Amino acid sequence: MRRLHLYLLVLLLTVTGLGIFAWKAEVLDFPILPSQRADSWRFEIRADLQLDGEPAIFSTYVPQTQGSFGVTDETYLSSGFGLTRTTDDLGNELAVWSVRDRTGPATLIYQADIYRFSSDMASDGPKELSPVLEIGTEELSGTERVALEQFVENLEQGSADTETFVAQLVSRLNAENPRDYEVLLFGSDGPSPQRRAEVAQKALRMYDVPARAVHGVELGDIDREAELYHWIEILMDGQWQAYSLEGQDATMPENLLPLWRGITPQMQLSGAELSDMTLSYAAQSRPRISLANLNTELQNSFVGKLTFYQLPVDTQAVYRVLMLVPLGALVIVILRQVVGLKTFGTFMPVLIALAFRETQLVTGLLMFSGLVAVGLFFRFYFERLKLLFVPRLSAVLTIVILIMAVASTLLETVRLGMGLSIALFPIVILAMIIERMSIVWEEYGPVESIKEGLGSALAAVAAYFVMNIWEVEHLLFTFPELLLVILALMLLFGRYTGYRVIELYRFRSLMKQKSR
Fold first, then answer.
1. Any idea where the 7 transmembrane helices usually fused to an inactive transglutaminase domain is (predicted)?
2. Confidence of residue 280 (pLDDT cuts 50, 70, 90)
3. Shared domain check, 461 and 334
């Protein structure tokens, strides 16, 4: 029963730890590797106006967090203008600038950082379909309505379902020989990209298919002015499916950022003249953790907040080291329980390994060996003075500190700059090691004492190599729930009673005799 209880506990810890880890990595975009970067752009809308002293209002659609895009760090540059944000019936976001009396040129700028998520983070489906299905008599004149009805009727006759209807629609929108009623819809020079989307929306709605024209920009790797791209979205099986209107074989470009939906123009202006309006973007490279933090904020995810990135920087530095201690302890557990390596305690090699991270391995080993050797000399000297345990241990501790102080001063004098690293050595643990080694020396002899000392140094080296892996440090700092998995492994090794590797080596002669 106890074994079953242990296995169930281990299973619970492992599933919980790996489950939270998978959710943060796959859904919230937390980086598994520290080198992972996020797709990010600096997006800008710039409008140059000429004012003549009358009240002026300028409005334009701006991007919003939806689908696989997140918008953050929005800024508005408009000296002397009032600014408001509003939302229309289709959920589009508009920035509205207004001024009462001003003369001369004026520049309005909107800027935002755009992030690309690995999956859709927000639903962009309408809560109500009536605005999507409604055409409205103000959108269609009598002649245009007749032409649209004939256009839809011919498309319907040549199709069998919605998919084939859309295929026929795209084909006619790109036909080189438009029919007479199509000329009325498209214009004599053929439909512009935006006009294609408008006609496609009207035709699909008349066909009783929930559809909406979408207008946006394609974000790329090169800094440039952006051109509007127009496509259509159709509601199928509860999901909006995007269709390109460039041709039957055309595919949707990557990184399409929607700006607005519907057939309304991009901007509205009254009381002024528009001199120029440009959309541009600049590609940026940012750590992916910034994308994960934004994702966590947008979803208000409790799981995503299980990191240390929201702590002050100095506190983060402490936890970067502290999170490695359980991993180092797991290494010591494996070395003691499975390999059979003898060490002075469990936490001493881990703390020595942490010190090695600051002093570097070779220098740290030399310092460790020197401090222990000198400390043992003074420990035996104090033994001859017949001191009690507590005063003797305090004296050894004082000697260790004095040695470290002298070494720091000498190294700083020769400008090796190792003073701070030496100060990071766990001086109390070193004093206890010296005391333990001296006791083992007296009870079991110098060979056993040196063997356990070397075993401690070897364990510290092994823990150092594991704890010094930058990817491992990043994983434990970003995904602290992995400590549950480490805890589960410790519990499993806590019930290990099989042979150890060193015992197999010790009793190899018996194994040879048994095999004969």
1. 266-510
2. very high
3. yes
Residues 320, 442 within the same domain: yes
How far is residue 364's CA from residue 422's CA, in Å, rounded to a whole number? 8
Q: How far apart are CA 478 and CA 482, in angstroms?
A: 9
> Does some domain include residue 299?
no
Please check the confidence at residue 219 and state whether its pLDDT lies above 70.
yes
Neighbours of 75 (CB within 10 A): 10
Q: How many domains does the chain have?
A: 2
Position 459 in a domain: yes
Q: Residue 81's Cα: distance from chain center in Å?
A: 37
**433 inside domain:** yes
Q: What are phi and psi of 455, to 5 degrees?
A: -65, -40
Copy the structure tokens of residue 97.
């600038």
Residues 331 and 225 in one domain: no
Band of the pLDDT at 420, cuts 50, 70, 90?
A: very low
**Crossing angle between the packed helical segments 324-334 and 482-494, to the nearest 10 degrees:** 20
DSSP assignments along 130-174, one per residue: HHHH---GGG--HHHHHHHHHHHHHHHHT-SSHHHHHHHHHHHHT
How far apart CA 156 and CA 60 sit, in angstroms, is 36
Name, in order, each residue with C-beta under 8 angstroms of 104's C-beta and a sequence gap of 6 or more. 50, 51
Q: Does residue 497 form part of some domain?
A: no
Please identify which residue in the block is written with the tokens 């438009």. 178
Domain boundary among 229, 255, 281: 255
Q: Identify the domain boundary among 206, 226, 255.
A: 255
**Which domain covers residue 454, as residue numbers?**
315-478
pLDDT at 284: 83
Whose CA is closest to 362, among 433, 456, 464? 464
